[in-house]
Amino acid sequence: MTHNDINELVRQDKAVRVGPDVFYISKHELLTIKKAVKYTCARPRKRDWLQIAARPLVAKKLVSLIDELGVESGCEEWGRQNRDAEREAGLLSDDTLLMGNDGEPVRAGDIDKPKAERLRVLPEMVECDCGHECGAAMVMSASMGTACPDCYDMMSD
Ligand SMILES: [Zn+2]
């Protein structure tokens, strides 16, 4: 697609620009990603869907899985495929802590198990630059230092 084609799509309201780098995605894809983030994040924020939308291959795979399987199963399948890829790349082991849908930390090896069968993980608490303590997996890196999820926007320029 040429730059002019894309501009024409944006003009016709069929594509939108997202992210700090100019990246174009169809409206349908954007809405589907927003739906997925709403479903998967305890506290969805704009940067959550921007992060996905800014990785075109990852984003398009998520959208096609949701189109095929629905939001719930599509998100689960997408998560599973991403974890498999990270496992193969050596970036993930069973003991890696991930964030579960409920916002609680969960071992990667347990994420597909029902909650009652998971090994209990106590979040390692860390003090952030915003002055609050939060679980290590929830610490966010903002431009003014580390922040808990509630203070991220305030700690970002
Ligand atoms: Zn805070």
Overview of the structural elements:
This protein is α+β, with helices and mostly antiparallel strands. The chain has three domains: 1-91, no CATH class; 95-122, no CATH class; 123-157. It is built from five helices and eight strands, in the order H-E-E-H-H-H-H-E-E-E-E-E-E. It has helices spanning 3-11, 27-40, 46-53, 56-69, 71-88; strands at 15-18, 23-26, 97-99, 105-107, 125-127, 133-135, 140-142, 145-147. It has a two-stranded antiparallel ribbon with strand order 1-2. A hairpin with a 5-residue loop joins strand 5 (125-127) and strand 6 (133-135). Helix 4 (56-69) packs across helix 5 (71-88). It starts with a helix and ends in a 10-residue tail after the last strand. Residues 128, 130, 132, 147-148, 150-151 line the site of zinc ion (ZN).
Structural class: alpha+beta
Strands of the widest sheet, in order across it, are 1-2
Overall mean pLDDT: 83
Unreliable segments of 5+ consecutive residues = none
Total strands:
8
Assembly classification: single chain
Tally of helical runs? 5
Entry keywords:
157 residues, globular, two-stranded antiparallel sheet, binds zinc ion, 5 helices, 8 strands, 3 domains, alpha+beta
